[in-house]
Automatic annotation (TrEMBL):
InterPro entries: NAD(P)-bd_dom_sf, SDR_fam. It comes from Asbolus verrucosus (Desert ironclad beetle). SUPFAM superfamilies: NAD(P)-binding Rossmann-fold domains. Pfam families: adh_short_C2 (PF13561). This is Adh short C2 domain containing protein. It comes from the Eukaryota.
Length: 83
């Protein structure tokens, strides 16, 4: 065994420039953000730094005994909209 840890982070809607440049006009973008507030238990989309902190934690020695985990960083979207 190589003792390699493999984990994943599944972000919800996270506000980035990609969303702003994703082919939506301003009205569509505002509707998208409003809908995201309704579909996330915490009532808002995420911030890139919130996802990044989770990734940094999983890569750190503090997470040395975590492997095979999928961590939703989605403000509760998965809990509200399970598939």
């Amino acid at each position: 065994p190589k003792q390699v840890r493999v984990n994943s982070v599944n972000p919800g809607v996270t506000i980035t420039n990609l969303h702003k440049r994703g082919g939506m006009n301003q009205e569509q973008y505002e509707a998208f953000i409003k809908k995201s507030q309704e579909t996330h238990a915490l009532g808002r989309p995420g911030k890139p730094e919130e996802v990044a902190r989770t990734i940094a934690f999983l890569a750190s020695d503090d997470a040395s005994f975590i492997t095979g985990a999928t961590i939703p960083v989605d403000g509760g979207r998965h809990a509200m909209c399970p598939r």
